[in-house]
Prior knowledge:
Layout: E1 2-5, E2 11-19, E3 24-27, H1 33-36, E4 37-44, E5 49-52, E6 58-59, E7 67-68, E8 70-74, E9 79-80, E10 85-87, E11 90-95, E12 98-107, E13 112-114, E14 122-130, E15 133-140, E16 142-143, E17 151-158, E18 162-166
Parallel strand pairs: 1-3, 2-4, 3-5, 5-8, 6-9, 7-10, 8-11, 9-12, 10-12, 11-13, 12-14, 14-16
Antiparallel strand pairs: 14-18, 15-17
Amino acid sequence: xxxxxxxxxxxxxxxxxxxxxxxxxxxxxxxxxxxxxxxxxxxxxxxxxxxxxxxxxxxxxxxxxxxxxxxxxxxxxxxxxxxxxxxxxxxxxxxxxxxxxxxxxxxxxxxxxxxxxxxxxxxxxxxxxxxxxxxxxxxxxxxxxxxxxxxxxxxxxxxxxxxxxxxxxxxxxx
Length: 174
C-alpha cells in the first residue's frame, strides 16, 4: 500500500498511525515524517519503504526508523538526514542530494543504490557492508555540497565481512 502525504497534509489526533511491513509512505512536509504524522501513537516498520518528495528542503525527522527497507530521495531542494539510517533494500536517489551532516547512511550488504547522478547523491558519509567473497564491486555515490565525486571499488576479495565508509572533504578537491 502507498500513502502519499503532501507538504500541507498532517495526519493528527489522539489515535494511532501504523506503517506495516511492505507499505510505502511518501512525505513532502519540510519536517519530514514528524510534520506529516502527529498522532498520539505511531508505529513505523523497519521493513517498510520511505520516500521524501517535497518541493522545499526537508529533514527526515525523528520518526524515520533506524533501519528501513527502501529509502527514496525525490526532492530537488534536498533532504537532511536527522539521524543515521540503515537501508536494507534500495537507496533510490531520484532527485536531489541527501545531506548526512554528523550522521551517515548505512547500506546493508544486500542493499543497492539506484539513480545516482550529478544532481542526486549523498552529501556526507555513506557506509556499505560487504560479505565475504571475491569479485565484489560498489560505487559510492557521494559528493559535497557542489560536486558529485563518486568512488568506485572493484574486484574486492573480502575475507572478513565488514564495512567501508566513504565521504568527501570539500577542501581536498583538485
